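Marked as duplicate of an earlier ticket. Keeping the data here for the record.
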Amino acid sequence: MTVRTNSFLSRNVPASLALILMVMPVTGCARILGLDEYELDPCVSTNTDEVRDVRLELGNLSDHQGENLRIELVGQDGIAVTQMLLEGITLDDEGKVALTVLRALPAGVGYTAHIYIDENTPGEYTGIEDDPSWVVGVCASGLVQLTEEDPKVALNQSFTVGSQPLRVTLNGYGIHQGGAQMLEFALVDNEGGTAAHTVGYYRIFDINLGEIDFKLPHVVFSRQNYEIEFYVDANQSGSYDDPPTDHTWHLDRVGDSDGIELDFLHDGNWENLDSFP
């Protein structure tokens, strides 16, 4: 799999930030107990040739309930490989955002997660004062933790534009309003028969409008084939279920010079999906 440049913060990483990433303590996987599917070894990122799932266990967000959270997984070379947007975050009973994103971490070593609250200009990091931000380690198991022990870190605001955005408008979803129903969306790179890799992920925790609009910058490449999968949690179970229990969609798209622009009207053409746990 070819890892491509698509970060809001990387590429031209300044020496000061590089030094911070070298000396900062790495979050320990052993803080999380009871997650049998994740090793509880110290948080080290061992080299692997397999795409891994990512488990987000993000605390220290009590002041940001209902706000938007953006996450990028970034390699040692400063290149982001996966981009996520969590809209209107809802904290669980433990005061955390906890979810799993399938196939989000490609083969490699030394990944970090760059996290910020998107408070100011949507889709644009405008500095630590406006958009609180953190950098934490990604465990070999794919576990990403944010705790009160993790200090805020300013992210580099410059990037080299090497890719195009995904722009999505979902129409007719008003039928799901008012029931605390979430929607999950995955953009999957499955080019050339290589292992599928989720390069873009979106979740809205509660559909409160009939129309859903979002954008993931720098995730699409021209002439690249992508699979798009998304669903509404119609039975409010908190996770994916095959249709007709949940309302589900699978689409195939090819990126062009403008990226991918999806304008989709809710319908009943549902399919079983494999991008969600």
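See parent ticket for discussion. The chain has one helix and 14 strands.
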